[in-house]
């Protein structure tokens, strides 16, 4: 075969992916990224993420589901629901709700350090906050970095108080100190060397009164300052959701400013992309199919609890929509879910050339190549995954190709190397056709993760064309 004929055959038969930077409008990418950085910087907990996303929704004409209980719902209605201020669902009603929903699901929680129910102790005249890590973290990454004290407290009288110390430049921060290298002779597996019981944050050293005969004078100083600022007492910790999160502002990374470094990309990047995609749908005033975004809590610890994907609130919400639309059939929701399609939006492991052996290089997501599609997740023998069908993979592929959205195929690491899961399997169990699709990330679960602005933008575009629906 002649070289030119082989070249034509290669162009016809082989799959060639190229960097999105050669075809995207850089100004659009950077403009979208700028707004995302504003969001991720002020959404350091799932509660704050819900608050900020609700503000976005209401500015775009979305109303709480309670507003429709007397009038019912109709095509084009924009509706949202929050659950315990930690989870959020938003939807735009289509022509016939019973014909199924096009959904994107993501999660709002991120790895962090939660305060224990009785967190404040004094040891050797140092006030310390005891923590319990949440999600899969490398504990050493949380040492000697500035941490912010953020959360919500319910006082004894039922009053809700939001607390935030460390996010403003003038605020003090908290630090978990590590042992100096000159004295550190610990050896062995880092997972055993760095233990959760040692994640205690330095919180104060000034005693409130002089004298050795007064018990815990530094702890009392901390409590007094907390009382002066928020009116809280020590028992209020018992009814509080307080986290220590990285006190690090989002930053552009690289001399070309092509990346974003921030805490919580996993998975607030997919949450933000999905919500803005829903609000920006070209068919939002007159959609053919119902479009919905579901943003959960608790994914990092198995989706347990009432605000997780295993919970019932999202099912109840859809049932309520069916009732408000006039559907009364006993099994309507089961039939509806069987007709529904979903992109499970969760971040993918980006290819870091420093750690080549962790990946199958033919099946790995690369920065700047678009949204990453995972046919399956799981671990060792595909355990714990739902795995998308060839038919649905074909639909997603045709849709993204037709709309000019850049995408890439990936899996979660080399076989037998490790693994993980998403919320996809919980929806598959209910009959929803689903595949994982999200933004590639470096340093996943660390206090300062990295992503490509181009991939962020293509994730938004992919969710948008999927929610807009259409047969391809």
UniProtKB/TrEMBL annotation:
Family: Belongs to the peptidase M18 family.
Keywords associated with the record: Aminopeptidase, Hydrolase, Metal-binding, Metalloprotease, Protease, Zinc
Membrane-crossing segments per the record: none
Record-level GO BP terms: proteolysis
Name by which UniProt lists this protein: M18 family aminopeptidase
NCBIfam families: PRK02256.1
Lineage: Bacteria, Thermotogati, Thermotogota, Thermotogae, Kosmotogales
Lineage top rank: taxon: Bacteria
EC number: 3.4.11.-
The keyword Glycosyltransferase is annotated on this UniProt entry: no
GO cellular component terms attached to this protein's record: cytoplasm
Species the sequence originates in: Mesotoga prima MesG1.Ag.4.2
GO molecular function: aminopeptidase activity; metallopeptidase activity; zinc ion binding
Required cofactor(s): Zn(2+)
Name of the top EC class for this enzyme: hydrolase
């Amino acid at each position: 075969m002649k070289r030119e004929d082989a070249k034509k055959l290669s162009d016809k038969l082989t799959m060639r992916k190229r960097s999105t930077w050669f075809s995207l409008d850089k100004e659009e990418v950077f403009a979208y990224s700028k707004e995302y950085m504003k969001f991720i910087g002020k959404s350091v907990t799932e509660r704050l993420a819900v608050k900020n996303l609700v503000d976005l929704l209401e500015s775009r004409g979305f109303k709480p589901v309670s507003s429709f209980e007397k009038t019912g719902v109709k095509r084009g209605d924009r509706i949202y629901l929050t659950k315990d201020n930690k989870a959020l669902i938003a939807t735009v009603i289509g022509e016939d709700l019973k014909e199924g929903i096009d959904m994107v699901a993501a999660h709002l929680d991120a790895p962090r350090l939660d305060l224990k129910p009785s967190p404040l102790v004094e040891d050797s005249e140092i006030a310390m906050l005891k923590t319990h890590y949440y999600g899969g973290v490398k504990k050493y990454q949380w040492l000697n970095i500035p941490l912010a004290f953020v959360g919500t407290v319910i006082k004894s009288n039922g009053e809700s108080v939001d607390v935030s110390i460390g996010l403003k430049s003038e605020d003090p921060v908290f630090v978990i100190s590590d042992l100096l290298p000159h004295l550190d002779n610990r050896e062995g597996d880092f997972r055993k060397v760095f233990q959760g019981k040692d994640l205690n944050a330095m919180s104060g050293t000034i005693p409130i009164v002089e004298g050795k005969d007064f018990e815990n004078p530094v702890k009392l100083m901390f409590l007094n300052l907390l009382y002066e600022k928020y009116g809280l007492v020590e028992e209020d910790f018992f009814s509080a959701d307080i986290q220590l999160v990285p006190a690090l502002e989002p930053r552009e990374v690289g001399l070309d400013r092509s990346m974003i470094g921030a805490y919580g990309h996993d998975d607030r990047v997919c949450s933000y992309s999905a919500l803005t995609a829903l609000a920006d749908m070209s068919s939002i005033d007159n959609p053919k199919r119902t479009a919905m975004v579901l943003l959960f809590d608790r994914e990092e610890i198995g989706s347990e609890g009432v605000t997780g994907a295993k919970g019932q609130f999202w099912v109840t919400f859809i049932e309520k929509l069916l009732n408000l639309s006039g559907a009364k059939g006993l099994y309507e929701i089961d039939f509806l879910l069987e007709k529904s399609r979903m992109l499970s939006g969760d971040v993918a492991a980006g290819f870091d050339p420093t750690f080549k052996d962790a990946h199958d290089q033919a099946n790995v997501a690369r920065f700047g190549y678009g949204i990453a599609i995972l046919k399956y997740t799981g671990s060792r023998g595909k355990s714990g995954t739902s795995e998308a069908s060839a038919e649905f993979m074909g639909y997603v592929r045709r849709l993204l190709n037709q709309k000019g959205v850049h995408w890439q195929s990936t899996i979660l690491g080399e076989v037998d190397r490790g693994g993980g899961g998403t919320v996809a399997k919980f929806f598959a169990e209910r009959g929803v056709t689903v595949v994982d699709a999200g933004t590639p990330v470096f340093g996943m679960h660390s206090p300062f993760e990295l992503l490509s602005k181009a991939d962020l933008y293509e994730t938004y575009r992919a969710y948008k064309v999927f929610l807009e629906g259409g047969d391809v």
